[in-house]
Amino acid sequence: MFARLFAESGLTLDRLRALLEVGAAGSIAKAAQNDPVRQSQYSRQIKELEDFFRTRLIERQGKGTRLTRNGRELARISRFFMLGLSNFQRGCLTEEQTFRIGASATFMQHFLLPALSGPASRKSVSYVTEVAGDDEIERRLHDLSLDFGIVVRPALSRPLQTREMVDWQLQLWMPKALRLAETEAARAYSERKLPLALAGKELETLGVIPGPEYDAHLVCDSFLDARVALEGQQVAAFLPDFLAPGSSQKSFLRVPLSRIDSLVFHYYLAWNPRLLRLNPHAIRQRDWLATSHRSAAFRKPRPVSTMTAPPRSKK
Fold first, then answer.
1. Domains in the chain, start-ordered, CATH in brackets?
2. Three-state DSSP class for 102?
3. Residues 6 or more apart in contact with residue 291 via CB below 8 angstroms
4. C-alpha 124, offset from chain centre
5. Which of 96, 137, 261, 276 fits a disulfide with 102 by CB distance 3.0 to 4.6 angstroms?
6. Are 64 and 30 in contact (CB under 8 A)?
């Protein structure tokens, strides 16, 4: 069945690993950590793979390199194969499983880290967490460099699958130090005059507010950063309901915006079903992650408010 693969030399695990490392690093120099000897070794190993398969696997891109279409396909097959071997080895040696999980900074700090480090976390399992946006998570789930991801988009490209975990709403909060009533603040926002701290990357993923024409006072990466800016008492900020000011609420006002207040967002657990075929232990891990929001670590704090919250409705 595999006679042709072994009819000539050139195909080895070391050479396939070199292709994976160069593809992940973006250049031979970075993969070799600027070691001239290793750079020469990686170049030779990839050239030997190209000779074996009779095709180009890498090409130049600026000062670095990137995998060609055939290179990406070979890297995907190789990663799938090596993950299977690695999981088999861990099982034979009864070593603990390690899972890589990607999520936004906000979800990571508020939900994921408390769950993974809490008493309800699964024993004999270790974790590596990485902050990443939906696009990067989707790409890395495809190439299996992440085991699981938490995203806000329910529809990912096939064969990726998702399961709903947590629902939440977006709210506009303003410090009372700005000396604006709720209606004045809402009007100032509609006129693009309200000083805002915007969680640029996380809001962009949601695709709802505000447009590039809004000249925000501060644009930061995450809702966590926006909350810190809000506490400086000089800017308003959009925050998820689970990040509402809480005990310091007397210093802030929630500004009603019917178009935003009526929306319900979700966090979804995402995975590649190929991972489950490679590693049956990942099935139990997926199921645990999907239900961890029911534990104390995943319960959203609901600060007491003097305002009447808008009714929640799902689209």
1. 13-88 (1.10.10.10), 97-167+266-298 (3.40.190.10), 170-261 (3.40.190.10)
2. strand
3. none
4. 24
5. 137
6. yes
d(CA 47, CA 52) in angstroms, rounded, equals 9
Write out pLDDT tens, residues 92-133.
766 778 899 999 999 999 999 998 988 767 667 889 999 999
Categorize the per-residue pLDDT at 236 as very low, low, confident or very high, splitting at 50, 70 and 90. very high
In 147-222, alpha helices (H): 182-190, 200-206
> Could you give the CA distance from residue 76 to residue 94 in angstroms, rounded to a whole number?
27
48/104 Cα distance (integer angstroms): 40
pLDDT of residue 62: 77
More confidently predicted of 315 and 53: 53
Helices (H), the chain: 13-25, 28-31, 36-53, 69-92, 105-107, 113-117, 134-142, 182-190, 200-206, 223-230, 258-261, 273-278, 281-291
Using the structure block, give the residue that is written with the tokens 């600060």. 303
* 180 vs 256: CA distance, rounded Å: 13
The residue to which tokens 């000089």 are assigned? 234
The region that residue 20 occupies, defined by phi over 0 for left and psi between -120 and 50 for alpha, beta otherwise, is alpha
CB neighbour class for 159 (10 Å; exposed up to 12, middle 13-18, buried from 19):
exposed
Q: What is d(CA 102, CA 159) in angstroms, rounded to the nearest whole number?
A: 18
